[in-house]
Amino acid sequence: MLSMLGWVRLLQQGRGPRSPLSAHGLAVLQQDMTGQVQRLGDLVDLSQIVTGTLPCDRRHVDLLTILEDALGTAVPAAARIDLVTEVAACPVLGDERRLRQVVATPEGRREQPGGVLAGAA
Fold it and tell me: Residue 36 in 3-state DSSP?
């Protein structure tokens, strides 16, 4: 998968066809393969969670900063469907990279208009 993604990037840098159709095709391939690589990584993480071997770098983390970073991209979309996006300070002990991964991956977390997208008290 990574080798195919590497070839797509090489072709996009001008080492291959340059028609608008091929450029669009390469962009679609890159987007799809990047998503597949991420999903494979998520499956590896899930396997490690199930077997109890997921490495965690537990440190004091400001969850507010993580949520604000994620909401920075989500707030405009949330405002369009009337979701509440208020966040309060929340220091936690956890793995910052994993927390960012959870907050940035909204699949399956759909809210109704007027619902809460993210919040901490």
Answer: helix
Supply the range of the domain harboring residue 27: 2-51
Q: Are residues 38 and 61 in the same domain?
A: no
> Quick check: helix, strand or coil at residue 30?
helix
The answer for residues whose C-beta is within 8 angstroms of residue 2's C-beta and 6 or more apart is 37
pLDDT tens digits along 54-105: 888 889 998 888 877 877 766 666 666 666 656 667 788 989 888 888 877 6
Specify the number of domains making up the chain.
2
Q: Do 118 and 65 fall into the same domain?
A: yes
Closest CA to 77 of 108, 99, 110, 100: 110
